[in-house]
Amino acid sequence: MMALLLRKSRGLGRSARGQDVPPLRDRGIVLAAFVLTVLRQRELNGKTTCLRDLHILLEIKQPEALRVVHLLEREGMVRIGEEFVDRFAAPVSLCLALREDFDRLVGPDIVA
Predict the structure, then answer these.
(1) What is the spatial distance between Cα 9 and Cα 3, in angstroms, rounded to a whole number?
(2) 3-class DSSP state for residue 50?
(3) What's the order of all strands across the beta sheet hosting 49-50?
(4) For the whole model, what pTM was predicted?
(5) How many CB atoms lie within 10 A of CB 105?
(6) Which of 43, 69, 93, 109 has a Cα at 20 to 30 A from 56?
């Protein structure tokens, strides 16, 4: 999982417009791996996940969840759906290419 995230995140810390954004370091890259793993497991179980779910499941502050997911979205790893009233109710899902990478590298189920 970490190898996949590191390979996909070589450009993490740069926005599409070339502006510097806070990179994922130390705890952040581990947290990003947890976010991706939680998303994949929930998708395999047919569940949708919103930003608030990540905050609760990973026991992190909402702004921290938003920051990590936003950086992952910038890198094309996840997609944040639209939610106009409450941004923490916005659905988050893995992008198709990353989902295919997961399936190829670790099979259909991470946890037995």
Answers:
(1) 10
(2) strand
(3) 49-50, 91-94, 78-80
(4) 0.69
(5) 10
(6) 109
The structure tokens listed for 98 are: 């990353």
Shortest CA distance to 89 belongs to which of 51, 38, 39, 35? 51
Rounded CA-CA distance 15/22 in Å is 10
Question: From CA 110, how far away is CA 24, in angstroms rounded?
Answer: 24
Q: CA torsion angle for 61, 62, 64, 69 (degrees, to 10)?
A: 140
List the chain pLDDT tens, one digit each, 112 residues.
444 444 444 444 444 444 444 455 556 778 888 899 899 999 989 999 999 999 899 888 888 888 999 999 998 899 999 888 888 889 999 998 887 877 777 655 554 4
In angstroms, what CA-CA distances link 103 with 6, 33, 97, 99, 107? 17, 16, 10, 6, 5
For residue 1, with 0-12 CB atoms within 10 Å meaning exposed, 13-18 middle and 19 or more buried, which class applies? middle
